[in-house]
């Protein structure tokens, strides 16, 4: 897989991490458990992170062993295929204990690869209008942005 696609996957992961972080600011466990839409959104973002981690090239993974790629993929697999085995308090714990350090690791990778930095927040400002082509001529260009 090309470096371009690795960057696209990194963007996907950063965007999902930032959305999780924004939506979970000061959210207590009981509030999380009471908000079905928030729980669904967080689980969806965790799936995106896991799928993107799976699609990152082996070379990219070797360059960045600090990220637990296999665990990210495994979480996505459990959410999708063994959804009954993960309960909401576990998702809450994962989001609060593991997502913030993952975000820091991904932002560090972003910096290492000298991806464009146009403002104070790497993930929010760097890719405001990043356009990618999905590799299928039948698909339109899809905008990926970090808001």
Key phrases:
two-stranded antiparallel ribbon; mainly alpha; single chain; about 5% strand; about 150 residues
Write the topology of this structure.
Blueprint lengths: L2 H21 L5 H6 L1 H20 L2 H6 L5 H13 L6 H10 L1 H14 L9 H4 L4 E3 L9 E3 L3
Antiparallel strand pairs: 1-2
Helix pairs in contact: 1-3, 1-7, 3-5
Q: Explain this structure to me?
A:
With 147 residues, this protein is mainly alpha-helical. It has one domain (3-115). It has 8 helices and 2 strands; from the N terminus they run H-H-H-H-H-H-H-H-E-E. The protein has helices at 3-23, 29-34, 36-55, 58-63, 69-81, 88-97, 99-112, 122-125; strands at residues 130-132, 142-144. Strands 1-2 form a two-stranded antiparallel ribbon. Helix 1 runs antiparallel to helix 3, helix 1 runs antiparallel to helix 7 (99-112) and helix 3 (36-55) crosses helix 5. The protein is globular, with a radius of gyration of 15 Å. Mean pLDDT is 81; it is low at 117-142.
How many DSSP H or I helices? 8
How does the overall form come out from the CA principal axes?
globular
Give the tally of structural domains.
1
Distance between the termini: 27 Å
Question: Main β-sheet: number of strands, strand sense, barrel status?
Answer: 2 strands, antiparallel
Broad structural category: mainly alpha
Strand order of the largest sheet: 1-2
Poorly predicted sequence stretches spanning 5 or more consecutive residues: 117-142
User: Percent of residues in helical segments?
Assistant: 55-70%
* Secondary-structure element string: HHHHHHHHEE
* Strand runs, count: 2
Alpha-carbon Rg, integer? 15 Å
Mean pLDDT: 81
Beta-strand percent range: under 5%
